[in-house]
Amino acid sequence: MGISQQQVRDRFRRFWEKKAHKEVPPIPLIPKDDPTTLFTGSGMQQLVPYLLGEPHPLGTKLYNIQPCFRAQDIEEIGDNRHTTFFEMMGNWSLGDYFKEEQLAWVWQFFTEELDLPKEKLHVSVFEGTKQIRSDEESAFIWRKLGLPKDKIHFYGADKNWWSRAGVPDNMPAGEPGGPDSEVFYDFGEELKTHEKSAFQNQPCHPNCDCGRFLEIGNSVFMQYKKEEDGSFTDLPKKNVDFGGGLERILAAINNNQDVFATDLFRPLLKTIKEITSSRYYYGQHIWINKYFRIMADHIKGSIMLINEGANPSNKERGYITRRLIRRVIGYGRNYLQVNRAFVGELVEPVVQIYGDVYPELIENKQQIEKVLVEEENNFIKTLQKGINQIKKDFQKSSNSKNRIIKGEKAFYYYETFGITPDLTKDIVEGLGGQRNQSYEVDFIDAKRKHQEQSRTSSAGMFKGGLANQSEQALKYHTATHLLHQALFDVLGNDVRQEGSNITGERLRFDFSSAKKPTPNEIKKIEDIINAKIKDSLLIDFKIMTRDEAYKIGAKSFFREKYPDMVKVYFIGADASLEHAYSKEFCGGPHVKNTSEIETLAIFKLEKIGSNIYRLYAR
Description:
about 35% helix, BirA Bifunctional Protein, domain 2, alpha+beta, 4 domains
């Protein structure tokens, strides 16, 4: 079955370390310093300030393997390539090397370190626009590396361009961006119908969706800045940002286009098979039941989120966790005929897969199981409530022969109670009713409209690390440092930051404390912050060793792993930095002086967990 996930991780680390790269520790799935997203959605998320010019403590050549979660992909799950939780292997050049070295090294990694057949690889490059030239440089480099012209494909800005704002026309003045070059693995013409896709009879190319090709790596070249007149000029320092999904790379190594057929899923699928007693196809180029894929992906994603404190709830991150768990239960009960509680049994195989990589999963295993079992018990009650509601709704009808269930109503039951349209139909027919002729179409249409509304309303929270560098965001971000220190001043040294979130209207700060702050203590915290703002304290940073930072009392986010060299921001900085009011590990950026914050008012305090509290301020 090819090399294991652990071997790929080891080879990736060894390869980039030989190229003089330093490993950047991955940040948590729930990011502390990015105000624009609920989850860490890419490897470059923590590096946005450095790609925009901030100096990185570890230098200009970096790499890491970053766990990621993308909530917007939930509805895509079920095919051979999409997952909500995944790991992104990345490398970066911050104004150091550029296209010549990057593409050669990527080619070397894939063909020599991982032994992928050269004849199976295709690449794509940017074809250019009226304002921006075609990326012939990358195409030339690929040809020098031995790729024939028919395996180098040119695509437009919708496929081979990166900026935080999307395609060049959408970029504001001053925004950096650039072309990218992707690597695809070709599983062969005979696998084109693997997923029975609607594209199977259309002309095939790397960016089509027939299932034959799988993108396994993408090198982004940040080389341009957009000017006021709409033209593009070269950046003085050009950056490289590479990302390759571990799951997809493993699929290519196995020469099996299904990422669920890798050892990142195999133990989990085996357990699901045993629980469901369902027919299960597994092996080289063999189809895996899509419900198995959905359940495996969702339980893995929910376990990873719970492991970082995102327990199921009705708000933000907790809502996503709850949605994943309930979909696992719903698919198990409604499609695979599991008539008992089972989600707790799925924790062990996930720990088996990832315990060596994320040892905290082993430590938290029992608590994760407890959370899942409790959520399952609650959801089973909700399902029964929904079934009772369906029966009640249909018993209201005066004419039993004409009682008809419509697709829109079925979607209401699905969204409210988690009842699938098939189960709703069965219940209605058992009551002597029937579905309308366009039942399935109407259900899908209602679901699509709901998804569009959800995407629109959550767009600002799922942008995947496009760090908000607005003036107000910088003020609030700096204010969290003042708030953090003021909490220590008033409540004592047992305070621990649990996370933060910033919008254009307010900041939110989560912390643990042995006692709940009293109204007088909240007022004292607020007064301290505003006094520091009024004092017009200077803000600066210093790059130092991690041990040195801890020695001088710099505060850190306990969930985050830090490299040997770190950036520490000082509020109230002086020549020695010893007497600064606040010292905190942080990547930045911040305002230059506390006076820029102007004022801060704490307007809400709530308890969100055992000894965990949430403050809102503006």
